[in-house]
From TrEMBL:
Family from the record: Belongs to the class-I pyridine nucleotide-disulfide oxidoreductase family.
Keyword NADP set for record: no
UniProt name for this protein: Pyridine nucleotide-disulfide oxidoreductase
Alphabetical UniProt keywords: FAD, Flavoprotein, NAD, Nucleotide-binding
Gene Ontology MF terms in the entry: dihydrolipoyl dehydrogenase (NADH) activity; flavin adenine dinucleotide binding
Nucleotide-binding is among the record's keywords: yes
Disulphide-bridged cysteine pairs: C58-C63
Length: 491
């Protein structure tokens, strides 16, 4: 596999001493693509600068390939959980087919189709490393080794994402660990895989590679998995991983790695426990801002820092209303769908300011990313799935809200019992008692992700509990959980 672009040529205006555009976007992942499309569609001539593959991390090393790895075992488990259907299941996963399907979803790590899409929406593309060179100016070191100077009349948007970080441990270099990129693009299934980190990437990749035939050990430094979720989420996901065969070890910190033979196994020394021997090791222990080599110092910012933005996505501490950020690089809500949301908001704000129109910066206004604080939806695609939106109970209390949690056994809902024999799951709603609206919801169980958007609408729209009572769920579906939560709340 290669990180190099897929061969599509640069297109658009020919290089000049200084090409002038209305908007210059650096970073061609989903946020950059969305922002560029919307400003171009509004009549602002837009150019996108990308140093790797158009489509970014999500398309090639994150969302799409990871879910292509996770969907087959989920489908197999669903069939085995239904009486009558399980008799038709013979054997296990065909790992080679799963990896081939993953490759197809990642477009063979070529971006020709994404480049063609850019053409179709009339966004120009420049291949290379873009960096700021003062206000409204971007210099690109092109993939051919030349240099191109781009000037923005209205806005420069930085959409350069984040990068995996590796801890500074003895033996790290010789161990040649996987990051999330290798974990989603590896060409073969290792016999033994150690996964370090109990967050979303760690648990999803542990689930995927165990299902594909690896013997997986998951090492989490904390007392449980998924520490930023409701506590019961980590407990149920850990139980699901253990039932699938993953060895889950909590309060396990790696202190040293050794791979004495280049082609041999890696040894992980683990505090408070036995050493782990694995053929490959994945470190899923954090991300850093993708702001290195961006020329931030030329506009008074610190290279390597996350971009601090206001809710219209303007970068703070840069005068002139011209510099914006969207996606992971802002550290607001590091999820692809939130990055695309931020891109839509930023594009609308850029267009409004370019036209001299008023900016609607009220809470939930057209030009503000209010959902980043109030209604962020996210799904963990393990078995069981976990899905949440808004605030956890602890986060709501820390925010000073007077709240009450409402819990219910998701497996006791008729639709869940039909979905899978022995269905295990849980649901929680967090209610603001002063306003009587939902401020958070969490679901754990097979297929729980499909319950999430209803909760997202309820949280984002601040639908009163009294009105939700009249939103009647169809029987017998898992959505009946809404009725049970409301009945429990009302007593």
């Amino acid at each position: 596999m290669t990180d190099r672009p897929g061969g599509a040529e640069e297109f658009g205006a020919g290089a000049t001493d200084a090409d002038t555009f209305d908007v210059v976007v650096i970073g061609g992942g989903p946020p950059g693509e969305n922002l560029a499309e919307r400003t171009q569609a509004a009549g602002l001539r837009t150019v996108l600068v990308e140093r790797e593959l158009v489509g970014g991390e999500c398309s090639y090393w994150a969302c799409m390939p990871s879910k292509a790895l996770l969907r087959p075992p989920a489908a197999l488990a669903a069939a085995r959980a239904v009486p009558g259907a399980r008799a038709a299941v013979r054997g296990g996963l065909a790992a080679e087919e799963v990896l081939a399907s993953r490759d197809a979803f990642a477009s063979g790590w070529r971006d020709d189709s994404q480049v063609e899409w850019l053409r179709s929406v009339r966004v120009e593309l420049v291949r290379g490393q873009g960096r700021l060179a003062g206000p409204r100016t971007v210099v690109v070191t092109t993939s051919e080794g030349g240099e191109r100077r781009l000037v923005a009349r209205h806005a420069v948007a930085l959409c350069t994402g984040s990068r995996a970080t590796l801890p500074d441990l003895p033996g790290m270099a010789e161990a040649r660990p996987w990051s999330s990129r290798e974990a989603t693009s590896a060409a073969r299934v290792p016999d033994r895989l150690a996964v370090v980190g109990g967050g979303v990437v760690g648990v999803e990749m542990a689930a995927a590679w165990q299902a594909l035939g690896a013997s997986v050990t998951l090492l989490a430094r904390g007392s449980g998995l998924l520490p930023h979720w409701e506590p019961f989420v980590g407990e149920l996901v850990a139980d699901g991983l253990a039932r699938a065969g993953v060895e889950v070890r909590t309060e396990a910190s790696v202190s040293e790695l050794r791979r004495p033979d280049d082609s041999g196994p890696v040894v992980l020394e683990v505090s408070g426990g036995n050493a782990v021997i694995a053929d490959e090791v994945l470190f899923a222990t954090g991300r850093r801002a993708g702001t290195e080599n961006l020329g931030l110092e030329t506009v008074g910012l610190t290279p390597g820092d996350w971009l601090a933005t206001d809710d219209t996505l303007r970068v703070r501490d840069v005068p002139g209303d011209w510099l914006y950020g969207a996606g992971d690089v802002t550290h607001r809500a590091m999820l692809t769908h939130q990055g695309k949301y931020q891109a839509r908001v930023a594009a609308e704000a850029i267009v409004a300011r370019a036209r001299g129109e008023a900016v609607d910066d009220r809470t939930w206004g057209r030009h503000v990313a209010t959902a980043d604080q109030r209604a962020v939806p996210q799904v963990v695609f393990t078995d069981p799935e976990a899905a949440s939106v808004g605030l956890t109970l602890d986060a709501a209390r820390a925010a000073g809200l007077r709240v009450r949690e409402v819990d219910y056994d998701l497996g006791s809902v008729a639709g869940a019992a039909l979905y899978a024999e022995g269905y295990r799951g849980r649901a929680r709603a967090v209610v603001d008692l002063d306003r009587e609206v939902l401020v958070g919801a969490t679901f754990v169980g097979s297929g729980a992700g499909e319950l999430l958007h209803a909760a997202t609408i309820a949280v984002a729209a601040e639908v009163p509990i009294s009105r939700l009572w009249h939103a009647v769920p169809a029987y017998p579906t898992m959505s009946e959980i809404w009725l049970r939560l409301l009945e429990t709340y009302r007593g």
